[in-house]
C-alpha cells in the first residue's frame, strides 16, 4: 500500500459571449459639472469585477483618471438594456458598449475644451491625469473640471455618450451545423499533479501550473482572482461535488454544506499561472474574458494525472475515493505509469 | 502566483495605456470586505410578507386534487396562490430570443414532472407561518412512472416527461431531435486510421452552491408599479420574463440588483421574481421569496448531467483523422436553457484541434429531475472533460508525449473549423508551450518552435466532401414569436384590494401563433382571458 504521484495535462479553448451572438448590451456615460463621470449600466457584478473593468475601460477611453469615473449599475429605471452577466460576455460585450459611449462623450469633451482654448479639437489630447492640452504644447491646457463647468453653464453642451455592442445573430444550418458561434476565443493549458492513496482511493492535489490566454488582462489582479478561484471550482467539480451522487439514480441528494462536499482550506495546493495576451480584433483593448473557461482544463488534467499515478481511467465525474478504489481493485492494484 | 508573459504576441499589442492593465482596487472592495455592501435581502420593508412554495414529493404524478381550505385558515396566512392565479402560467426562458416552445408552468396545474416542482405558493406574515400552513395543504397525487436516464428516456414506450415535447427531446429546426454537425466523412477517416478508439464519459449534475441563495423582494410602488430587489444575474432577462408571465408591460417593474452573492449561471432562471411580484399584486404588500439552502441544493436548477460517446481515428504519427461524437444533455423536466447549450456544444466540436472529418449529434433530453440550467462553462465543461481525457488516451495509444500530441493537432490561424469558419487569433500552441515551461515538462526543440501563427491554412483550410443524410420534410414553423412581440395586455393591473372584483371582459386579442397558448385560463386577478 502506497501513495503514488502523477501529472496530467489538458488544453482547451472557450468562446466569448452568447453562442451565435444576438446578445446586445448598452451603456450611457455622462459628466457632472465637476468633470466627474458616471457610467450607467444594467449589468450585474457577481463578484467578478464587472464594475471595475468597465470603470477602467471608461477612464482609458475618456483619458481621465480612474478615480473620476464611477459605475452605477443594475437599476432598470436608469440603466439601459443588457442581456446579463453570463456566457463570459461581461468584459467583451459590456466593455465594448462602455467604450463606444465613452468615445462619444470624449468627442463632446474635446469640442468643449477646444472652444475654451480657441483651438481645433483635433489638436488636443488628454494626459490621463485630468487635463486636456494642445498636442506638443502641454502648457496650453485646461482641466476636465473647467471644461465640464464651461460645457454645462456657458456652452450648453452635454458631455455624454451612448454605446451599444451587438454581434448580429447567426443562423445554424440544420444539416451541417454551419454557424458563426463566437467572434473570439480564449485559450488555456493546465498541468495538474496529484497524489493517489491506493489503500483509500483518496486524491490529494499537489500543485497546478497553467497558462491562460485572455486577449488582454484589463486588470491583472481581477484576472488572478478569477483564475485562482475558477481553477478551484474545477478541482471541486472533478473530485467532490454533485447533488446526485448515484446519478442517474436521484437518491441521496445533499441538503446543506455538511452533506455537499467541496474542498476546504486543507485541500488547496500551489497554483502558478502565466497569462498570455493575444488581442481579439473586436475586444475592448483586445480583451476576451477569463470568467468561465478557467475551470474547464482542471477536470481532465486531474483525471489524466490519476491515470499517470495509478494507471486507472476515471471517465465518470466526480472522481470519488470510492470510484478510484474500485477501479484500482478491478485492475488488480495500482500500476504507476512513466513519471513525467 | 500570476506572471504576465508580455513577451508573447507583443507585436500585436499596444501596451502604452494608462488605466488598462493596472491592478486597480475594485470600486466595491471596501463594502465587500467590511460587510456593508447591500444585497437584495438587506431590504427590510415595512409590512413585508414571506412566500414559500409547496413542492412535489413525487418525481412524476398527476395532481388529482389540491385542497387548501385548512391552510387558508392557518394563522398569519394572507394569500394562497395556485397555478390558475398566474396570468401566463406557461413559459420558456428563451422565448425572449424566440427559441423553443413554452413548456414550464410557474405553479404546477395538472401534473408534476420532478420532485420539488412548485404546486402552490403561500404568502404569510412570517416564514414559520407559511411553513405551518404548507403542512395543511392536502394534495391528492396519482404517481406516474418516471424516467431518470437520458438513454432510457429515448426508448420507445418511455414515460412522456413533458407533454410539449412528447418524444422527450427538444426539437431543433422543427424536425430533428438533436443538433447535427457534419464536416467531412468520418467513416472514410476511420477506414484510413491506424487506430480507432471509442469511449463513454459521464458527468453527474453539480450545484452552483452560491453563498447567497436565489431570492427577491417585490413591493407595490406608486402609479401601479412594483419595485423588485433581486439576486438575478440578468436584470432585464428577469424583468422581461416576469412581465411575460404576469402579462403586464415591462415598465410596470422597477428592478434593482447588481450586487450578487455568487451566480455561476444559477441566477438566470428567474426562479423567484414572478411569484414574489404576484404575491405583492395580490396582497398589496411587499413580499419576499428566497430559497432556503435545501431548496437551493435540491430544487434550484443545477448544471445538468451529460453523457458523451467519442469515437476517434488516429494515425501512428499522432494525427487525428476522424472524430465522431454523440452526446446527451440531461435537461431535467423542462427546457430552461439546455437547448441553447446543445448548439453551443456542437459549435465547440471537435475541441481546439484541426481534424479533417468530424461528426456530431447532440441531444437535449427531458427526464423527471430538477430542470438543469446554465453554469460556468455551459455546454463546454463536460465536453472538454471527455475530449481531453480522450486526447490523453490517444497520446498513450500512439506512444506520444501528451503535450506534443496536443501541439501537433492544435488548430492554427487560417485552419477551417468544423462549424465552417476560419480559425483566427488562435493561441493554443503557445499556452501548451508556456504551461510546459512552467511545469518543467520537457518538450523537443522543434515542438518549442511551433506557432499558432505559422503553417496553418492551405490544405488545413479545406472542407472535405461531406456526405449528408436526406433532409426530412420541414413542418411549418411552430416557434412562437419573441416575448418582446407579444400583444399588449388588455388591462393594466392596479394594486389589488383583498378580494378583487373581476374587471370588465377584455376586448378580443389576436390569437398567439403558438399552440402552447391554446388553453383558456381562469385567473382570480385578471379574469378569464383568451390566450
Automatic annotation (TrEMBL), chain A:
<dbReference type="Pfam" id="PF20256">
    <property type="entry name" value="MoCoBD_2"/>
</dbReference>
<dbReference type="InterPro" id="IPR037165">
    <property type="entry name" value="AldOxase/xan_DH_Mopterin-bd_sf"/>
</dbReference>
<protein>
    <submittedName>
        <fullName>Aldehyde oxidase</fullName>
    </submittedName>
</protein>
<dbReference type="InterPro" id="IPR052516">
    <property type="entry name" value="N-heterocyclic_Hydroxylase"/>
</dbReference>
<dbReference type="GO" id="GO:0016491">
    <property type="term" value="F:oxidoreductase activity"/>
</dbReference>
<dbReference type="InterPro" id="IPR046867">
    <property type="entry name" value="AldOxase/xan_DH_MoCoBD2"/>
</dbReference>
<feature type="domain" description="Aldehyde oxidase/xanthine dehydrogenase second molybdopterin binding">
    <location>
        <begin position="3"/>
        <end position="268"/>
    </location>
</feature>
From TrEMBL, chain B:
<feature type="domain" description="Aldehyde oxidase/xanthine dehydrogenase a/b hammerhead">
    <location>
        <begin position="34"/>
        <end position="145"/>
    </location>
</feature>
<dbReference type="InterPro" id="IPR008274">
    <property type="entry name" value="AldOxase/xan_DH_MoCoBD1"/>
</dbReference>
<feature type="compositionally biased region" description="Basic and acidic residues">
    <location>
        <begin position="446"/>
        <end position="457"/>
    </location>
</feature>
<feature type="compositionally biased region" description="Pro residues">
    <location>
        <begin position="495"/>
        <end position="513"/>
    </location>
</feature>
<dbReference type="GO" id="GO:0005506">
    <property type="term" value="F:iron ion binding"/>
</dbReference>
<keyword id="KW-0500">Molybdenum</keyword>
<protein>
    <submittedName>
        <fullName>Dehydrogenase</fullName>
    </submittedName>
</protein>
<dbReference type="InterPro" id="IPR000674">
    <property type="entry name" value="Ald_Oxase/Xan_DH_a/b"/>
</dbReference>
<dbReference type="GO" id="GO:0016491">
    <property type="term" value="F:oxidoreductase activity"/>
</dbReference>
<dbReference type="Pfam" id="PF02738">
    <property type="entry name" value="MoCoBD_1"/>
</dbReference>
<dbReference type="InterPro" id="IPR037165">
    <property type="entry name" value="AldOxase/xan_DH_Mopterin-bd_sf"/>
</dbReference>
<dbReference type="Pfam" id="PF01315">
    <property type="entry name" value="Ald_Xan_dh_C"/>
</dbReference>
<feature type="region of interest" description="Disordered">
    <location>
        <begin position="446"/>
        <end position="531"/>
    </location>
</feature>
<dbReference type="InterPro" id="IPR036856">
    <property type="entry name" value="Ald_Oxase/Xan_DH_a/b_sf"/>
</dbReference>
<dbReference type="InterPro" id="IPR016208">
    <property type="entry name" value="Ald_Oxase/xanthine_DH-like"/>
</dbReference>
<keyword id="KW-0560">Oxidoreductase</keyword>
Amino acid at each position: 500500500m502506497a501513495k503514488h504521484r502523477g501529472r496530467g495535462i489538458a488544453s482547451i479553448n472557450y468562446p466569448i459571449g452568447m453562442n451565435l451572438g444576438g446578445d446586445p448590451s448598452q451603456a450611457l456615460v455622462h459628466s457632472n459639472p465637476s468633470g466627474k463621470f458616471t457610467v450607467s449600466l444594467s449589468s450585474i457584478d457577481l463578484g467578478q469585477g464587472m464594475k471595475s473593468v468597465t470603470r477602467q475601460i471608461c477612464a482609458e477611453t475618456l483619458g481621465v483618471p480612474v478615480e473620476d469615473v464611477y459605475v452605477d449599475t443594475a437599476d432598470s429605471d436608469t440603466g439601459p438594456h443588457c442581456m446579463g452577466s453570463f456566457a463570459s460576455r461581461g468584459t467583451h460585450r459590456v466593455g465594448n458598449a462602455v467604450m463606444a459611449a465613452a468615445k462619444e462623450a470624449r468627442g463632446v469633451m474635446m469640442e468643449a475644451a477646444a472652444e475654451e482654448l480657441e483651438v481645433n479639437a483635433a489638436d488636443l489630447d488628454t494626459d490621463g491625469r485630468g487635463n486636456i492640452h494642445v498636442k506638443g504644447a502641454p502648457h496650453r491646457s485646461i482641466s476636465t473640471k473647467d471644461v465640464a463647468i464651461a460645457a454645462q453653464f456657458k456652452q450648453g453642451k452635454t458631455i455624454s455618450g451612448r454605446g451599444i455592442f451587438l454581434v448580429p445573430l447567426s443562423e445554424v444550418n440544420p444539416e451541417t451545423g454551419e454557424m458563426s458561434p463566437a467572434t473570439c476565443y480564449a485559450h488555456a493549458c493546465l498541468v495538474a499533479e496529484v497524489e493517489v492513496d491506493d489503500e483509500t482511493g483518496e486524491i490529494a492535489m499537489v500543485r497546478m501550473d497553467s497558462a491562460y490566454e485572455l486577449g488582454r488582462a484589463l486588470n491583472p489582479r481581477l484576472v488572478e482572482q478569477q483564475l485562482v478561484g475558477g481553477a478551484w471550482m474545477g478541482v471541486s467539480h472533478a473530485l467532490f461535488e454533485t447533488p446526485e451522487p448515484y446519478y442517474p439514480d436521484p437518491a441521496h441528494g445533499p441538503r446543506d454544506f455538511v452533506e455537499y462536499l467541496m474542498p476546504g482550506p486543507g485541500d488547496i495546493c500551489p497554483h502558478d499561472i502565466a497569462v498570455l495576451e493575444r488581442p481579439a480584433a473586436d475586444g475592448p483593448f483586445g480583451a476576451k474574458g477569463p470568467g468561465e473557461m478557467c475551470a474547464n482544463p482542471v477536470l481532465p488534467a486531474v483525471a489524466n494525472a490519476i491515470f499517470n499515478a495509478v494507471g486507472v481511467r476515471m471517465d465518470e465525474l466526480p472522481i470519488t475515493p470510492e470510484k478510484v478504489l474500485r477501479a484500482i481493485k478491478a485492475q488488480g492494484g495500482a500500476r504507476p505509469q512513466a513519471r513525467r | 502566483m500570476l506572471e504576465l508573459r508580455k513577451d508573447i504576441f507583443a507585436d500585436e499589442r499596444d501596451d502604452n495605456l494608462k488605466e488598462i492593465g493596472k491592478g486597480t482596487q475594485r470600486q466595491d472592495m471596501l463594502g465587500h470586505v467590511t460587510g456593508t455592501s447591500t444585497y437584495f435581502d438587506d431590504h427590510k420593508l415595512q409590512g413585508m410578507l414571506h412566500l414559500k412554495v409547496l413542492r412535489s414529493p413525487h418525481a412524476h404524478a398527476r395532481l388529482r386534487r389540491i385542497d387548501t381550505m385548512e391552510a387558508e385558515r392557518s394563522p398569519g396566512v394572507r394569500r394562497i396562490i395556485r397555478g390558475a392565479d398566474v396570468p401566463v402560467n406557461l413559459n420558456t426562458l428563451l422565448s425572449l430570443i424566440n427559441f423553443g416552445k413554452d413548456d414550464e408552468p410557474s405553479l404546477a396545474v395538472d401534473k408534476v414532472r420532478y420532485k420539488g416542482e412548485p404546486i402552490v405558493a403561500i404568502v404569510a406574515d412570517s416564514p414559520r407561518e407559511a411553513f405551518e400552513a404548507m403542512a395543511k395543504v392536502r394534495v391528492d397525487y396519482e404517481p406516474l412512472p418516471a424516467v431518470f436516464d437520458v438513454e432510457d428516456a429515448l426508448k420507445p414506450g418511455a414515460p412522456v416527461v413533458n407533454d410539449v415535447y412528447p418524444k422527450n427531446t427538444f426539437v431543433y429546426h422543427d424536425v430533428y431531435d438533436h443538433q447535427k454537425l457534419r464536416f467531412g466523412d468520418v467513416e472514410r477517416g476511420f477506414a484510413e486510421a491506424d487506430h480507432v478508439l471509442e469511449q463513454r464519459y459521464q458527468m453527474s449534475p453539480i450545484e452552483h452552491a452560491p453563498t447567497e441563495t436565489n431570492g427577491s423582494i417585490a413591493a407595490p410602488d406608486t402609479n401601479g408599479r412594483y419595485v423588485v430587489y433581486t439576486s438575478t444575474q440578468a436584470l432585464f432577462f428577469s424583468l422581461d420574463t416576469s412581465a411575460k408571465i404576469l402579462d403586464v408591460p415591462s415598465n410596470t417593474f422597477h428592478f434593482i440588483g447588481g450586487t450578487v452573492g455568487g451566480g455561476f449561471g444559477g441566477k438566470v432562471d428567474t426562479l423567484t421574481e414572478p411569484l414574489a411580484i404576484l404575491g405583492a399584486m395580490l396582497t398589496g404588500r411587499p413580499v419576499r421569496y428566497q430559497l432556503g439552502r435545501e431548496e437551493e441544493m435540491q430544487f434550484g436548477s443545477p448544471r445538468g448531467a451529460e453523457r458523451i460517446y467519442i469515437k476517434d481515428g488516429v494515425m501512428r504519427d499522432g494525427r487525428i483523422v476522424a472524430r465522431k461524437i454523440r452526446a446527451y444533455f440531461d435537461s431535467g423536466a423542462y427546457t430552461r436553457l439546455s437547448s441553447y447549450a446543445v448548439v453551443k456544444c456542437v459549435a465547440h466540436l471537435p475541441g481546439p484541434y484541426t481534424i479533417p472529418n468530424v461528426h456530431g449529434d447532440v441531444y437535449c433530453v427531458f427526464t423527471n429531475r430538477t430542470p438543469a440550467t446554465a453554469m460556468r462553462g455551459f455546454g463546454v465543461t463536460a465536453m472538454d472533460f471527455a475530449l481531453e481525457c480522450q486526447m490523453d488516451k490517444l497520446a498513450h495509444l500512439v506512444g506520444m508525449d501528451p503535450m506534443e500530441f496536443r501541439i501537433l493537432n492544435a488548430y492554427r490561424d487560417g485552419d477551417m473549423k468544423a462549424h465552417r469558419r476560419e480559425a483566427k487569433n488562435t493561441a493554443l500552441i503557445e499556452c501548451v508551450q508556456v504551461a510546459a515551461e512552467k511545469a518543467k515538462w520537457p518538450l523537443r526543440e522543434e515542438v518549442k518552435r511551433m506557432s499558432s501563427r505559422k503553417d496553418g491554412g492551405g490544405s488545413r483550410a479545406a472542407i472535405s466532401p461531406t456526405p449528408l443524410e436526406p433532409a426530412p420534410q420541414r413542418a411549418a414553423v411552430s416557434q412562437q414569436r419573441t416575448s418582446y412581440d407579444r400583444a399588449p395586455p388588455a388591462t393594466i393591473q392596479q394594486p389589488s384590494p383583498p378580494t378583487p372584483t373581476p374587471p370588465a371582459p377584455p376586448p378580443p386579442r389576436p390569437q398567439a401563433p403558438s399552440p402552447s397558448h391554446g388553453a383558456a385560463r381562469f385567473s382570480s386577478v385578471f379574469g378569464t382571458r383568451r390566450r
